[in-house]
Amino acid sequence: MRIEIVDYYYVDLGCLIAFWIASLALVAFRENMMSFDLLRHLGMMQVLMYFLHRSCMQQKKGP
What we know:
mainly alpha
């Protein structure tokens, strides 16, 4: 029981780090390209977060 909880916690920590790195990269990209469209940026961010979330959910479902 304790091992499963620890594994689940580490998966959550990995997801949080992935979300943080992705958000930092997107913010830096937006700052470098001032003419970048905001709606396009938000759409790309949503797609990226969706794929990250989906991969994290698959990790949690694993054995």
